[in-house]
Amino acid sequence: xxxxxxxxxxxxxxxxxxxxxxxxxxxxxxxxxxxxxxxxxxxxxxxxxxxxxxxxxxxxxxxxxxxxxxxxxxxxxxxxxxxxxxxxxxxxxxxxxxxxxxxxxxxxxxxxxxxxxxxxxxxxxxxxxxxxxxxxxxxxxxxxxxxxxxxxxxxxxxxxxxxxxxxxxxxxxxxxxxxxxxxxxxxxxxxxxxxxxxxxxxxxxxxxxxxxxxxxxxxxxxxxxxxxxxxxxxxxxxxxxxxxxxxxxxxx
Length: 252
Description:
This is Acetylglucosaminylphosphatidylinositol deacetylase. InterPro entries: GlcNAc_PI_deacetylase-related, LmbE-like_dom_sf. One of its GO terms (molecular function) is hydrolase activity, acting on carbon-nitrogen (but not peptide) bonds, in linear amides. It comes from Pseudomonas rhizosphaerae. 39% of the residues lie in helices and 16% in strands. The longest helix has 19 residues. The mean pLDDT is 96. The chain has a single domain, classed as 3-Layer(aba) Sandwich (Rossmann fold). The radius of gyration is 17 Å and the shape is globular. The chain has 11 helices and 7 strands. The protein has 252 residues and is an alpha/beta fold.
């Protein structure tokens, strides 16, 4: 089994702020990523990944009146293993509600947003990867631009979603891009494991970052651990600060 790279406090934000490779990334605009006439399809392994990975992009796309489809692969019910405060049954109901509130805080038009819940097993997506590929492909059109988590992001669900998203997009004739999320935790600032040649930086202004931060704080379950069993929060402050920089990165 591959060693879990998502341990400890990860790479400090200051290290990333000093990254030459990150600073030199070419810029890209939302209208270039999702041209007129295309729909954005965001594939989130868990409720919150759509905001953590591309909460700024979603704001920009809403401003451009682009069609948006969000596919939540799992309900995120395995985030607090062994917790009686946050049992799986509670999480499977609460986490999608948190996503709805977060998208509302981003200013997305929920009445016109397409949103599909896949119901796949949290932490077990890799075991259902072929079925997930078929599930995603069912909803895709050739003119879609698909955004999934990166296939080397460090979390097994994120990686399986990245592979399934790429396969489904290829089969449908759609465009596919990837979003690093946990990468900023385990990678180093000049890390050769990151596909820098494919990376583009989407700049966000202060208001967009503030809305993204407000949206992230809708995920109360992920901001809380369970002290009774020594369980730390999934999204402590040092994780959030890396994901709330004035840009988002997309691998083309």
